[in-house]
Structure formats: structure tokens, C-alpha cells
């Protein structure tokens, strides 16, 4: 038995066999072959296996995710049977007397380069299809297993270097009981998704993929940030007992599902949920969410080879708005860049993408993408209580430009006799220190603020929130962060506006007493955190927490703040 330490990313305990989610080694050498017919037969065998595999994946995706999501695999199958491509590879094997691996890679690289240089967007997207199919065929030529998280059919713990948002979105909760990664932090997107999916997770272990083999029995302790490898029967029994206790605790919290969120002295705050897809609605409703404080629309754009259409987006937004009835739904416009890449956009590589062309900056530059999303949102607005939020706003000019585009699209729809709600609030995420400092000016023009603490902390502390080496600088309780939060809330209240928080800090049991005292109106978090937060708030008096928050604002370190919170709020 051995033990790894990492960062607790999602509460809970998972006990299952290890499944290594590691990119396969597809390296090979160029070889001269003598038996050409045999080599061509080997190539066609790999094609046939790949086609059968993709048909199974397509049918599974269609059943689990719908026809639109499965369409990508039909495109991949078409590549496999494209006579022009298949014939060119076979001809290269014959003419150059080379191995199938080399002929495949040389030929497909030529096709990929040719498609990527075309002006037609549809043809450029075919390059990504060819790249994916090449990887699959190559894996069969080399007898290397290719990984696919959506095809897991037994209970496992995922072991990975990292998980992208699209990887995490494919995880099936029925079989994936937990995961652990080498890198990442508490606010990395895989960690956030894990909390949404209620999958225990430990990230930033540095060497999980080095120490854990396929089939090892693994315990992921999402409470303490520990990963046990091949534990003793006694350790397993202890953790199984902890699993039972956690389920009992969740059953107690579940009794609050239909209760309003009030403090011990009857002050009401709103507990909302962060979601990524319409499928997350069930979790919001089952956990008593009073609204959606953050709908991360980028997941509509991920895991596919082309931009979602206006109609696809309209249906997704409509589904969420209808599902929440008249409860507020705050939709964040497209927020990609940084660690959230869209390969089909062919964005330039940047030295520091977290400070580069991302979020509203990208949308204002690529206005066709932005306008399509805004039209879909405006059309959907009549089906519920929509609020639109622009991310990564750094200046008032950016907000004014974004709002002007929104108004233009709204007027265009109205001119075409398409109904649009006339009660849409328009706000911004506050995640850049300059915006927090100038909140008094922003508050005159926005309808609301939502504080995105994941990035606000990262930018204020100058520490990459994905980097486990500087994880100690992710300090939500640092007085500098609390002062910025206070400035934003006060600026909003002075103008009669409201402030929410959609960063992970909003569901943090240490932060909740402080945020209550600072005057936060809406706490938005992973749906699975709502009932626990409601139970905590029921025990707190706002008047006491105001005193606590004022004291914390004058403290010098995060540690001092934590000690004060624990002393004053029974933690």
C-alpha cells in the first residue's frame, strides 16, 4: 500500500479499480516492406476495426447524448471510407514500399495541411476529422489501445495527467466513481466539473500516472486530498464506513431541499447553482437551487468539430429557462481561451493565454460568433427569467461595446417580429482587479455584478490557479481579496443593484460566513454544495457575521482570517 497527497477538488470517497487515462504512444519508424499485399491487407484490417469501433461509439453517443452529438462520428466514418484518401494511402504503400503506419501519416498529413489552408470553413473542419481518424487507425496498426472515457463499462477511478473539460463532460457517473490527476488545482475546470457530477476528485498529486497501474485498487479521499493505492482490507473497511456516514449526512441536508435560504436572524440570501449543460438541471432542482447563477455556455462549443448553430443554442437556452420556471437564470456569454481551447477556431498560440484573447475580448473580435449566441439568447428570453452576463470585462468601453451589440441584435429581432423579453438584466463578471476597483463606475451602467473569484484570486495574487506548485497562493480568505469583494458589493448596493458570486468561493464553508457579513446577495455554486450551504447559513446570524467580516478586512493574513471564522461560526 502507498499514499499520494494532492489537492481536494471534490468531496466524497471513491473505491474502485484504476483506469489509466493516458495518451497512448503512437510513435513508429519508417520501414521498407517486401510483402506489399500483406501490408495493404494489414492497413485495410485497421480501417475495418476502426469503422466497427466508430459505429459502436456513434450508436452509444446517439442513445446517451442525442443525434447532434453523434453526428461527429458519422463524419469520422465517412473519412474512413473515402476512396480518395484510402486509395492514396494504398498507392503510397505500393509505390514507396513503406509500412502502413508511414504511408498513413504521410498521406493524411498532406490532406490535413491542404484542408487547413482552404477558405471554406466546412472544408477546414474536415482536417480535424482526418486527424482524429488517423490517430484511431494508427493505434490499431500499432496494437495500442486508444482511450475513450465514454466507453467505460465498469466501476473505475480515472488516473490522468489532467482532464480537459470535454474529457470530464464525457465521464459516466454510473461507472466513473472518482478521479485523480497529476496536475491541476481546486478551481481547475476538471475539478469544477467533478463537483457538478458529484464525482470525488483529488488533483495535483504530481505522480499519480507514475505510481498507479491499470487494475490497482484505489481509494480517492476527496475530503482530505489523499489517494491510497492498493490499500489494506482494514483501510478499505474504514473508508467504506466513511462513505456510509457521508451518505447519512447528505440525507439530513436533503430535508432542506424545499426550504428558503435564511439565516438564524431571518435574513434571506439566494442560493443558486453553476451549470454547464441543460442536463445539469436535474441536479439543481434536486438540490433546491433557487436559480442558476452561472450557465457556462462554452460547453455547447466543446467536444465538437464546428461551432453550434443558432438553433442548437436556442434550444439549449430555452430548455434551461423553461426548466427553471420563473427562477432567475444568469447566462454567461462564450468564455473560451486560457485552458478552454476550441481547436476548430484556429486561434493563434499565445505566450500567456490567460491574459490574452479570451472571453469578451474574443467575442468582440469575432462578432459573428458573438451575435449568433446573442440572437439565440434573446429568442429564448421569452421562456423564462433570463439575465445575460459578459465575462472578463476589464474596461467600461468593453461593456458598452458588448451591450451595444446586444441591443443591435435585439432591435433586429424586434424588426422581424420576433418576440424578446423586455425584462432582461445585463451584468458583468467581476474577475479582473481593475474592474473591482472601478466598481462604483461600472455600477452606474450594469444591472448586476457576479464576482468570479476563481480568476479574481488568480489575477490578484499573480498565481496560476491550475498550477499545483503555487496552489498555496490561491487564497480566497486573503484580506486583499475580501476588500475587493467588499468594494464590489458596496458599489452595487449604493446604486440599488445586486451582487452575486459564481466562483468556487461562494460554496466554501469558511468563506460563507465572511460573504454573508460582507453583504453578498446571491451565492452560486456547484448544485451539490447548495444543501450543505443552506444548512450552514441557517445556523449563522447576519449581524454577527457583519462584525466578523469587518474584523477580517483589517487582518493581515489569510491564516488569521481562517482562525477568526472558525472561532466565530462553529466550524
TrEMBL record:
UniProt GO MF annotations: kinase activity; metal ion binding; phosphoenolpyruvate-protein phosphotransferase activity
Pfam families per UniProt: PEP-utilisers_N, PEP-utilizers, PEP-utilizers_C
SUPFAM superfamilies: Enzyme I of the PEP:sugar phosphotransferase system HPr-binding (sub)domain, Phosphoenolpyruvate/pyruvate domain, Phosphohistidine domain
Broad class of the protein's primary localization: cytoplasm
Catalytic residues, chain numbering: 189, 502
InterPro entries found in the cross-reference section: PEP-util_enz_mobile_dom, PEP-utilizing_PTS_enzyme, PEP_util_AS, PEP_util_C, PEP_util_CS, Phosphohistidine_dom_sf, PTS_EI, PTS_EI-like
Domain PEP-utilising enzyme mobile: 153-225
Residues bound to Mg(2+): 431, 455
Binding site for phosphoenolpyruvate: 296, 332, 454-455, 465
Compartment(s) where it occurs, according to its Swiss-Prot or TrEMBL record: Cytoplasm
Entry similarity comment: Belongs to the PEP-utilizing enzyme family.
Listed name of the protein: Phosphoenolpyruvate-protein phosphotransferase
Organism listed in the record: Sporosarcina psychrophila
Amino acid at each position: 500500500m502507498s499514499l499520494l497527497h494532492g489537492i481536494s477538488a471534490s468531496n466524497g470517497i471513491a473505491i474502485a479499480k484504476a483506469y489509466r487515462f493516458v495518451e497512448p504512444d503512437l510513435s513508429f519508424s519508417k520501414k521498407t516492406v517486401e510483402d506489399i499485399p500483406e501490408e495493404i491487407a494489414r492497413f485495410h484490417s485497421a480501417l475495418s476495426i476502426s469503422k466497427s469501433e466508430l459505429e459502436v461509439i456513434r450508436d452509444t453517443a446517439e442513445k446517451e447524448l442525442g443525434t447532434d452529438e453523434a453526428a461527429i462520428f458519422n463524419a469520422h466514418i465517412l473519412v474512413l471510407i473515402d476512396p480518395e484518401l484510402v486509395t492514396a494511402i494504398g498507392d503510397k504503400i505500393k509505390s514507396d514500399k513503406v509500412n502502413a503506419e508511414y504511408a498513413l501519416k504521410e498521406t493524411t498529413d498532406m490532406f490535413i495541411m491542404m484542408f487547413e489552408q482552404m477558405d471554406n470553413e466546412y472544408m477546414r473542419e474536415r482536417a480535424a476529422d482526418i486527424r482524429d481518424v488517423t490517430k484511431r487507425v494508427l493505434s490499431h496498426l500499432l496494437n495500442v489501445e486508444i482511450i475513450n472515457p465514454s466507453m467505460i463499462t465498469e466501476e473505475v477511478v480515472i488516473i490522468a495527467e489532467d482532464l480537459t473539460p470535454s474529457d470530464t463532460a464525457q465521464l459516466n457517473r454510473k461507472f466513473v466513481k472518482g478521479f485523480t490527476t497529476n496536475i491541476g488545482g481546486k478551481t481547475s475546470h476538471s475539478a469544477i466539473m467533478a463537483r457538478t457530477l458529484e464525482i470525488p476528485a483529488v488533483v495535483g498529486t504530481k505522480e499519480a500516472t507514475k505510481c498507479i497501474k491499470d487494475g490497482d485498487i484505489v481509494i480517492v479521499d476527496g475530503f482530505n486530498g489523499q489517494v491510497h493505492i492498493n490499500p489494506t482490507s482494514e483501510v478499505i473497511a474504514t473508508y467504506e464506513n466513511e462513505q456510509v456516514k457521508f451518505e447519512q449526512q447528505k440525507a439530513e441536508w436533503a430535508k432542506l431541499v424545499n426550504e428558503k435560504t435564511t439565516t438564524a436572524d431571518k435574513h434571506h440570501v439566494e442560493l443558486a447553482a453553476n451549470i454547464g449543460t441543460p442536463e445539469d438541471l436535474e441536479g439543481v432542482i434536486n438540490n433546491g437551487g433557487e436559480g442558476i447563477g452561472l450557465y457556462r455556455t462554452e460547453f455547447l462549443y466543446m467536444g465538437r468539430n464546428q461551432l453550434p448553430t443558432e438553433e442548437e443554442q436556442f434550444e439549449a437556452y430555452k430548455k434551461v429557462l423553461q426548466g427553471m420556471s420563473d427562477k432567475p437564470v444568469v447566462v454567461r456569454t462564450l468564455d473560451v481561451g486560457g485552458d478552454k481551447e476550441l481547436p476548430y477556431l484556429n486561434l493563434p498560440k499565445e505566450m500567456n493565454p490567460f491574459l490574452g484573447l479570451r472571453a469578451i475580448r474574443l467575442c468582440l473580435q469575432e462578432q459573428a460568433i458573438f451575435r449568433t449566441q446573442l440572437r439565440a439568447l434573446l429568442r429564448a428570453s421569452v421562456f423564462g427569467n433570463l439575465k445575460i452576463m459578459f465575462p472578463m470585462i476589464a474596461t467600461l468601453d468593453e461593456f458598452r461595446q458588448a451591450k451595444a451589440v446586444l441591443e443591435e441584435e435585439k432591435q433586429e429581432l424586434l424588426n422581424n417580429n420576433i418576440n424578446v423579453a423586455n425584462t432582461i438584466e445585463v451584468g458583468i463578471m467581476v474577475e479582473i482587479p481593475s474592474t473591482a476597483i472601478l466598481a462604483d463606475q461600472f455600477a452606474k451602467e450594469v444591472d448586476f455584478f457576479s464576482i468570479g473569484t476563481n480568476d479574481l484570486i488568480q489575477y490578484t495574487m499573480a498565481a496560476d490557479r491550475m498550477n499545483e506548485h503555487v496552489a498555496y497562493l490561491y487564497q480566497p480568505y486573503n484580506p486583499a481579496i475580501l476588500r475587493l469583494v467588499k468594494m464590489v458589493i458596496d458599489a452595487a448596493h449604493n446604486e440599488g443593484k445586486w451582487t452575486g458570486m459564481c466562483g468556487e468561493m461562494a460554496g466554501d464553508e469558511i468563506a460563507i460566513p465572511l460573504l454573508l457579513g460582507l453583504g453578498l446577495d446571491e451565492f452560486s455554486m456547484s448544485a451539490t454544495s447548495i444543501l450543505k450551504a443552506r444548512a450552514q447559513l441557517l445556523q449563522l446570524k447576519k449581524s454577527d457575521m457583519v462584525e466578523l467580516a469587518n474584523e477580517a478586512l483589517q487582518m493581515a493574513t489569510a491564516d488569521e482570517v481562517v482562525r477568526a471564522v472558525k472561532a466565530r461560526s462553529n466550524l
